[in-house]
Amino acid sequence: MKTIEELERFMTEPSEALLRDLGQTEGDIMILGVGGKMGPTLAKMAKRAVNQLGDDRKVIGVSRFSSVEKKEELERHGVETIACDLMDEASIDHLPFAANIIYMAGNKFGTTGNEPFTWAMNAYVPGRIADKFRDANIVAFSTGNVYPLTKVASNGCSEEHPVGPVGEYAQSCLGRERILEHFCHVNGTNMLLFRLNYAIDLRYGVLLEIAKQVYEGKPVDVTMGSVNVIWQGDANEYALRSLLHTDNPARVLNVTGPETLSVRWLAHQFAKEFGTTAIIASEEAEESLLNNAAKAHRLFGYPRVSAQDMIQMIAEWMKQGGKVSDKPTHFQEREGAF
């Protein structure tokens, strides 16, 4: 892939499984927080799927849309857009009803020093949304950060593992889940909590950060010795297919790739792609933030894009000077300060 257009065509191509599952749902699809890193490609994938199914239902993207270009781009792809500040209750009240809600809004970076806003965005607003859309089918994005660090040999945290969020961002995300679960119980709403880490695009993400350090001859910190990743297109597909798997009480689903990847190994793989040598800094700690997504793989199958595919695509993207976003994941953070 040489252009962003080629990348997004590949990333938003609906699979036969997605078409089958989405065809079993009814009603419009509204994506709240569509303006983030994943939202635009999720909306485009949903619209392509609806078009291929021959449906007349709407795909609606809701965001503040501080970027007019992003709003116009979505509209060019047939996604209806609504500018809305979810921190404004009157704006929420004026949103139309949609039978299917993908809730992606939240705040992570900039939490330190701005904790009250993060808690309001991550734990107060979800309650307003859950009450507004009490009769909808809701898939709500969450994060593997609600889990504690675990030993690599443990194979990561399954959905049954006790939560143990580190830092205020992760704590506020657990707050979001608890508030959503409360309204799910009170209102009888069907819901799924989508605990994701980490989605990978060629323009940002854990693998790009490691690749960039290797490419620029900078040392790679391996204290957070292992990670889980999933291609963004696969994560978006899982989210849309999850509309068939909401439940009451709310269902929890971990979402990531099947491998536990060594950061040291990833650095050396990128070094091979670049014809250079990886500089490794530090030593691996005994524990990492790891997510076991075996249940998601049983429901949806393994991701279509493998870890090795992602490594090769990112290396080629970098070598040809592909556009990247300055949006670090801070996946090495062990104290929860974002």
From TrEMBL:
Write down the InterPro entries for this protein, in alphabetical order.
Answer: Epimerase_deHydtase (IPR001509), NAD(P)-bd_dom_sf (IPR036291)
Gene3D superfamilies found in the cross-reference section: NAD(P)-binding Rossmann-like Domain
Pfam families per UniProt: Epimerase (PF01370)
Which stretches make up the NAD-dependent epimerase/dehydratase domain?
A: 29-221
The domain of life for this entry's organism is Bacteria
Q: Mind telling me what this protein is named?
A: Nucleoside-diphosphate-sugar epimerase
Q: Which organism is it from?
A: Salimicrobium halophilum
